[in-house]
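Students often ask why we bother encoding 3D structure as a string. The short answer is that it lets us treat folding as translation between two languages. Here is a chain of 283 residues written in the first language.
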Amino acid sequence: MSRAVNDHSVAPRPRAAIGWRPIVRGLTLLVGLSLSSTMVLGYADLLPQPTDRAAHDAPLSRVGRLPHVAQQLARGASLRIVAFGSSSTEGVGASSLGAAYPARLETALKRALPRLANAVTVLNRGIGGEHVDDMLKRIDRDVLAAGPDLVIWQTGSNDPLRGVALDHFRRATVAGVRRMQARGIDVVLMEPQWCPKLDATPGAYHFRDAVREIGHELGIPVIRRSDLMQRWIAEAQLTRSELFAADGLHMADRGYELLGQAVADDLLQGTLAGTAAVALADQ
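And here it is in the second language, the structure alphabet:
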């Protein structure tokens, strides 16, 4: 599948309309008056509440924070996300690029943050068939040059299919995360999908487990996509034919839609406390 890559300037990002900041400041003063959970929940009115289903799915393992995302949201500034990965980021299996998970994520975030709708961007930087070394070669061009606040790095799907050694995958992934963090970018990892083709590949899910372990070791969130997909089927949110493309490897439109929405909800909820703290510090 081919796609056009749009280059973006890394110039300072525009602020949102001034009306957002007084609301943030007013409510976050309440946070400063008390450290109780009820006061933090009062601030939560500024952010969208997750759907019941998304809250139950809890796709991120909450082992880390996203300080730069929290800062952007607290200050009403633009939010730029790079979706970095292979074919299931690019959107193989979807009916169009607009049905791939990065586009679904952008739509969900804009819907949840109407005041910032014109300042939220999710860049699709997925290229089908790539393993970790392929992606490392293009971090400068496709990630760092875009100046993102957050990178969601989907990885570990092609590596077992292409014979990459697990230890090498771990070392290369850690090196890539640290390169991004060194530039002040928040990083979230997305683990491999659950699918028939990986079920039939010996050792494939060791790479899923490695992604989870790396997230824990580095203190960064991990989108547990495999768990999400199995739960959607178990709870009859969609059928297997709606979840998987015909190739037995990639997701289809409905699966990408659920993934984009679940990640958007949890990103916003996961940055709530940090958003409150940053906005209070601006007083």
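Translate back mentally: Confidence is low (pLDDT under 50) at residues 1-58, 276-283. Keep this in mind for the problem set.
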